[in-house]
Design brief:
- This protein is mostly helical.
- It has a domain of 65 residues: 434 Repressor (Amino-terminal Domain).
- 44% of the residues lie in helices and 0% in strands.
- The chain is built from five helices and no strands.
- Helix 2 packs across helix 4.
- The radius of gyration is 30 Å and the shape is elongated.
- The termini are far apart.
Length: 106
């Protein structure tokens, strides 16, 4: 297995332990066999449907969309919606410069 897969399975195991759930409790909650959970936590391959069931059982189902970014939400998508900034000095340019008096002038 790849290093990413092994890292993912180790992180999953730590998350399950701190959740806290035993493999048996997780199997009951998710509908995935204890053997499949054990295999996954040891870095072996499991099916995608079982992985999704496990993630949902640990209340991580909503985070799975973060794994593959939405291409319609690219950074340029947000840049186009930003309002153009205007210069603060543009208001000064419209003032009448002859209205200023130092105080010692009459």
């Amino acid at each position: 297995m790849s290093e990413e897969y092994i890292n993912l399975s180790e992180r999953f195991k730590q998350y399950r332990i701190y959740y806290p759930l035993t493999q048996s409790e997780l199997a009951e909650k998710s509908g995935v066999s204890v053997r499949s959970i054990s295999r996954f936590e040891n870095g072996e391959d499991i099916s995608l449907s079982n992985f999704i069931k496990l993630m949902r059982a640990l209340d991580l189902g909503g985070r799975m969309a973060d794994m593959i970014p939405d291409q319609s939400k690219r950074p340029s998508f947000y840049l186009e919606k930003e309002a153009k900034r205007s210069r603060a000095s543009s208001a000064r340019d419209n003032r009448d410069s002859t209205s200023f008096v130092w105080g010692d002038e009459k």
